[in-house]
Each structure stands twice: as C-alpha cells, then as structure tokens.
Fold these 2 entries.
Entry 1:
Amino acid sequence: MKKILLVHGWSHDNYTRSGCTDAWSNRSHFVEALSAHFEVVRFNLPGFCGEKEPERPWFLSDFTRYLDQVIQREKPDIVLGYSFGGAILVHWKAASDNKAVKAFLVSPAIIRRYENKSISISWFKTILPERLIVLGRDFYLVSVVRNPYYAKASSVMRETYRNIVGLDLREDLLKVSDELVLIYGEKDSTTPPEPVKDFLALRKSHHKLHVIENGGHDIANTHTDELVLAIVNLA
C-alpha cells in the first residue's frame, strides 16, 4: 500500500490558539475514505492545531523547508496538498525538483480571487508613520472587513497570513519538470480553476488538470467519493 502524506490548508478554526488538535478534523470523512486505498500520514503545520507558532512571521519558503523536513522523515510515495497546502507543495516541487514523490494538489491556492473593495486605506501610507499604518490596517481587517483569518490570528500568524495570501504561483507550475495532478471543483470561487486552466493551456503544460463537476472549494466534503476515485485512478 502506497504512503500518502497530507498537507492541510489555512483555516482560522485550526489556529493553535483555538484549541484544535487535528487540522484534518473538518475533513475526517475524506481522510477515512482515502485510508481504504493508502497508508495516510497527516501532520499539523507550525501555528496550527497544537503546533508552536513560528518565532517570526513566515514566508512560503519557510513552510516549504518545513515540508521538506517532514518528507525526508516520512518518505511518502505521494504528497497531497489541500488549498494552501497545495501552494506549499507546488513551491516545494519547484524548488527541489524531486521526482520521486508524486504530487496531488486539491483546490490548490495557485492564484486566488477576491472581491474588489470600495474602501481603501492605501492613501494612509503617504501621511502616517509605519506604526500607525499597522494599527490602522489591523483595525480595518479586524473591525471593518471582519476577516476571520486575520481577526482570530496572533500577531505572528497575522503577518504570516499577509505574506502568503496574495501569492501567484503559476510560474512555479512551469518550473516543475514532472507531472503534477491538480484537482479543482468546477464552481470553486476561492481558488478558481479557470485562470490556472488557461495558463496551462497556453503553455502546453504536461500537468494534469481534473475538474469535479459542480464542486466548490470544499470538494473533500461535498464530493468525497469522486475526489478519492480521481486520486486512486491517477496515483
């Protein structure tokens, strides 16, 4: 039985300060279904579900180095990254060029889609000192936008979130020489498949893109059987 390592996404409910213990508890049915076909290994990233927060705000490259340590220890045949976990995985693949491990990216955060807000605080940067800008930004995101990914986070995790949330990793896809499998929900509005699909088509990429009909971002819960079947067939 092949070993599959699961890399979870970024959920505000999974912050260590929230008291959770398992970052996959919200997708336990998917993990159970996957366990019928693979030896499943899961872990919690720093700052999530009991793991100590980084001492400083992390960048994607820090998460990539951490994942590399886990892969070296566990020696999986397959690594599956979900949402932000997919971003870490594709960045790791691009940096390491490791062809021994097959990668599945589920609802991966290659490029995100956001609503345009009519309110902007960018003009503050021209008239206020840095400390007041940070305070104003925190107030805006916590009290005005009410972003739970930011409002429920510690200061270190807030800055880490800001370091990774706006990244566009399409160019990283081109750096990966072996085949990646990207699985999206057709109606995913958080990490939509269309920009990635168009990008790969224009560059005649060798990566596989599988879209689950009528699925959203949480296809692990809403389309469990279809998702597991796709992974099994493409593994």
Note: Residues 3-114+167-234 form a domain with the Rossmann fold fold (CATH 3.40.50.1820).
Entry 2:
Amino acid sequence: MDLLIPEVGTIIWMLIAAGIVFFILVKWGFPIITRMVDERNEYIDKSLLAAKEANERLAGIQTECDELLKETRAEKARILKEAADRRDEIIAEAENRAKESGEKIIADAREQIRLEKEEALRSLRRQVAELSVQVAERVVLKELSTDDDQLLLIDRMIDDVKTGK
C-alpha cells in the first residue's frame, strides 16, 4: 500500500513544482493563450462583419440586377414597338406607291384604248368614204335603168364588201 499513499515530502515537492508551473503559466502562458483567444474572437467578428457586408452588397447587386433586367425588358419592348411601327409605315408606303402605280397604269391603258379607238374610228370613216366613192363611181359608170338592175348592183356590192374586195 505504500505505492498508493505518497510520503509527505513528495507531496510538498509536488505542490512546489505545481505552484512553479502554475506561476509560469499565469505569468507567461495564460496571457499568450488569452491574447490568442481574443485575436481569434476579433478575427471571427471581422469575418462575420465582412460576411454580413458581402451579403448586403450581394442583396444590393441582386436589386440592381433586377432593376437592370426590368429596364432591359422595357427597352426591348420599346424597340420591338418601334420596329412594328416602322414596319407598318413601310407597308403603308408600299401600298400607297402600288396604288398610285396601278392608277397610273390604268390611266395610261385607258388613254391608249381611247387613242386606238379614235384611230379605229378614223380608219372606219376612211373605209366608208372609200366605199362610198367606189359605190358612187360604179353607179355613175353604169346606167341603172330599172329597179332590178339597181337591186342586182346593191347585192353585188354587199357581196364584194363581205369578201373584202
């Protein structure tokens, strides 16, 4: 049992050694450990503050991004509306030009038809005049003594006109 019960001298030396170790720790060890713990707490506090600031900036950036996206969508809608308006203007201009061009073509065609009609009437008048002269010439050249001779001459002239002589 001697091993389990220490002697009084050993206990005193153990107390003195423990006191010296405790004194050294209090004098130099605990201040260093306390300073390191305080520095670590400061670092953690700074890191938390930086993280909080980063989250706030991120929220601000997200808000800016949302606003920029809204502005971009509004600009896109405005540009598309302008493009649609311009397209409608171009279509209206093209329709007006086509209508004017069509009206001009129709007017030109009517004028051409009128001129051709006048020319055809002139030609028909000339042919009638020539035919009248030919009829008068034949009547004058031939004496028509009877009504039968006159009817016969008229029938021949009609046949000549039909055949194109």
Note: Helices lie at 8-141, 147-163.
